[in-house]
Amino acid sequence: MFMTANSPPKARSRWKAFFKFAFWGGVSFIMISGFAIFLFLLSLNKDLPSIESLRHYELKEASQVFSRDGELIGEFFEERRLVTTEIPSLVKNAFIAAEDSSFYSHQGVDFFGIFRAAYVNFRAGSIRQGASTITQQVARAFFLSTERTYTRKLKEVILAWRIEQALTKEQILNLYLNQIYLGRGAYGVAAAAEVFFGKTLNELGVAEAAILAGMPQSPSVYSPARNPDRVKRRQLYVLRQMLSANFISEEKFELAANEDVLIEPRRDLNRSIAPYFVEHIRRYVMRKYGSRMVLQDGLRIHTTLDVEKNRYAQNALRKGLSDLEKRQGYRGPLRRLNEEEMQSYFAGRQFAERDVAGTQLNADLEVEASETEGRGRILMRLRTGLEVGEVLEGLVRAVNDEEAYALVEYEPSLFARIDFADMRWASPRINPDDEDQHPRPPRRVSDVLARGDVIVMSVKDLEVETPEGVEQAESFPMISAVLEQDTEVEGAILSVDPHNGYIVAMVGGYDFNRSEFNRAVQARRQPGSAFKPIVYAAALDLGFTPASILQDSPITFENQLDEEKWRPNNYDRRFVGDTTLRDSLLASRNITTIKLLNEIGLDTTIQYARRLGIQSELTRDFTLALGSSVVTLEDILRPYIVFARGGYPQDTLSIRRIEDRYGNILEQNVTEDFHLSTFELLERAVADMRRDISSIVLSEPIALADNESASFLAEALPQRSRIRSEPMPTHPGQVLSSETSFLVTHLLKENILYGSGRRARNLQHPASGKTGTTDSNRDAWFVGYTTQLVTGVWVGYDDLRRLGRFETGGRAAVPIWAEYMINASQNLPRVDFEVPENIEFARVNPRTGELAGADTPGAVFEAFVKGTAPRPGEARPSRQGLNLYQRD
To answer: Is 564 annotated as catalytic?
Structure first.
């Protein structure tokens, strides 16, 4: 009922009072509500962090490891992020179109978007949609949690407005694009471009940029590997947004929409290229710089590794260890299945789609195609086709003794043929403790394989004729293969450039995924005869010559504490009487080496070992001469580096330079080429290793009759030669004279030509080296060098099992060394070892050490320090010749 002109005055007064009350009540409510909201916002604002920190905020960034030629080989991180300020406009525009099309026009908040989202959420009865701008996302990422509440949203709005006042649009966008998570552990667009496409940001195309820009909403939902259809639909949405914002033309839209985009497979970079070396680097930088700097501060670690040489080392080691296992016989199949188990062998296993004849789909692609509206596809870049040498597991389906082959199914309806010739090696496993065992080689296929065997094989040929009756998958050729077996024996290779000490190859085991223990730098094993050159170097430096006569005769040591006797023997258990120092080293004679150690003294030998770079604890008894002290491969390599460098030491280096994220150098290892260095530079380079040569104190030998018992730990052997009272003179920075270094090098070169290292003679470079084999063939070594590379190889079981019958350093380690060095040296110049001025050569009789006459059979040109060669008419005891080829 409304008032009219005829209404009583009293009624009009009541309505007037009501409207007055309502007006002032409304005003009061608005004022109180506004004040309450103001106080609420004031309290929120008071509790919010300062925006100033964003001006100098440093994002967590991954540290990167680079090879010698700049290839990325490893990363260390908490968040895999590559921070960059140089983001192409194409990438920026794609994200703006997808996430915040009004980014350049709003002041941090898109109010229209907020009202739209509020309406949707009101109708849904819960928070279903947001309207966050890029600035709001920055506020949330750096200052707030991800909870979905209206309080958090209000804080986000306030912070976004404050950020807009404090930073430029470009600063905000850079923070966003470097911080955002895009899946696969990648933070920021630079890391995502590398992870998903294997490209830098500048290499991205429109189609790829649109895929990245579509991921922030839900990286798991829009994962190309999981949901290619969704990724394609999201990509098309982003492309349309870019088109409507005039970021791209209609033509570019069509090209990008119809482009096939290749997604790189997920891989662990640290385990892909040089896993043992990268882990070695990680341990070093974590120890020196700490986890925060390494995992968050984006170090740039430039290393010494040569990726190609490291690959040669990996291949050589795996081949050599596999060959050793084969020489010791076949362990049998991985397992043997019955008929029922054979039917389900492939159940639940996934296999790559393969193209005809091992050719490649879409430029080396395995395609998981997803068609969307007739547009381009999202493709996973995976390898198709097999490679020669690739190792496969398979199930033996048939054995044919008549035609001498076995048929192995390695994927459903894909078969390999193993001919008998490719399994002939598979004799029964040899027991290394049973010297009377002589396994008979297999005579037919069924002696080795049976239907139902699950075996390991390697690809030999990518296409062979398919036997009749075999239902091979249509259009796929049958392959041929070689029977293999799991390799249990381990090994290591370490290769160094002697000019600067740079480690160019490091392989610490057969398979990093099987064992991360790095046997190149962590394993401590007895080096056996690989230690002997240190003893001979000391002897030559103190006056012995290659023609000096040593006596190879039995000796006995007795420990006075427990009356235990030690009777050292030679490898062939024979004694030859008088022999030259040259032949003693070439034949790796144990007895003469022990006697030589006595002549120069135990303390003197240990001091020489220290000067030559051995850092491990050394045994203080005569077994030292036979390599009884445990050392690392890196440790035993150092003396050989000295020999290769003409007496100048050089520690091994794995780091060339380390920079922080701003390019400031934190560490740099610059070494001088020893051929070009002045004495002052050499002194500076080896300052931490130098010791005064005059500090060496010669130990006086104790004269005893041969075979007389002596204390194993304290006594010595007969003195048989006079030696000079002090070492050969050296130049500043040298730890061994140039003349002595060359004499050792020349003798070790002959060891490769005529001795235990003869399997390395195919190397087309002058090379020197020494094998080593420990008791019962538990360790096999070869350390050798050219003027370009110093490389060591160790082979053995982690549990100290015997390697097997006849598996010496010359048989187990030298072929690995030779395989690697032949490949690693193929593009290096052929340079012989430099002959010092104070060296002369004389033609001598290798059996007697006398000067050789014109008609002396087997005479050799031997190196001597001037004035020390045998003089005409000197009588030397003669002896029978040696079969050097059977020595360690």
So the answer is: no
